[in-house]
Amino acid sequence: MMNLKRLSKVSAALLSTALMITPAIAQELTGTLKKIKDSGTITIGHRETSIPFSYLDEKQQPIGYSMDLCMAIVEEVKKTLNMPTLAVKMNPVTSQTRIPLMANGTIDLECGSTTNTLKRQEQVDFAPTTFVTGTKLVVKKSSKIKSYKDLKGKTVVVTQGTTNERVIKALNDAENLGMKFLSAKDHGESFLTVESGRAAAFAMDDVLLYGLVAKSKKPADFAVVGEYLSYDPYAIMHRRNDADFALAVKRALSALFRSGDINKIYDKWFVGKLPDGSTMGMPMSPLLKSAFQSQALPE
To answer: For the segment 64-95, what is each residue's pLDDT rounded down to a tens digit?
Structure first.
């Protein structure tokens, strides 16, 4: 009987300790994880015309490659916080608003087509690289434009707040090409400017240009031309100096890289048919394969 009594006392003590530890663990949460735990919601910043990374389908719901990756991160956050019914809120962002909305706490993840740069790292942090691209031009085939050097004195449209805007303007200044610039709020508006003839070219990451062409009314009328004018590694944004949340993000993406599931997600959006029946026709590049392999961190 004494042994049973002693065992009972030990069990009671362990249970009491466990109950005391649980609130302590909750109190230890900081930054984004605490914000999510307290609110019961994780907020996803998404784009509306960044095909095929993050854009709206026919039902006006955000879909795409980056959205699928962010949903994997959401599942990891659910495990980390033991919140299987965590609510997911969608919040549209643009090139201009994405960083301010991240910095002020409006969104928790930015799931679009954002280039990881050192300058941007002064304001936000980035997940591991999920795509690699670079600046090119989309033009009408009838224009005969083959390179940025053919844009001397012509009108070029850029999407406000993008790295591509800085790249093409710097080239214009360096080589005294006398380009005229129009600014648009998003990639869809920029492409429409070329489609309507108001601009001769749109400078943007080539993968986004291919997506816009594929979704256009007359894809055969357009061409993506020129050499790469920049190197743009895409990554999902999250808040700066938030190590615990960053670890959850890395854990989710590393698992995709290790398992090879990233290949299935990539093929879904870049090789197979998109929901509207169009296709990007872009097999994974050796550079991107190497990036995934080098970022497949062990658990």
So the answer is: 999 999 999 999 999 999 999 999 999 999 99
How confident is the model over 117-152, as pLDDT tens digits? 999 999 999 999 999 999 999 999 999 999 999 999
The number of CA neighbours under 13 Å toward the Cβ of 86 is 25
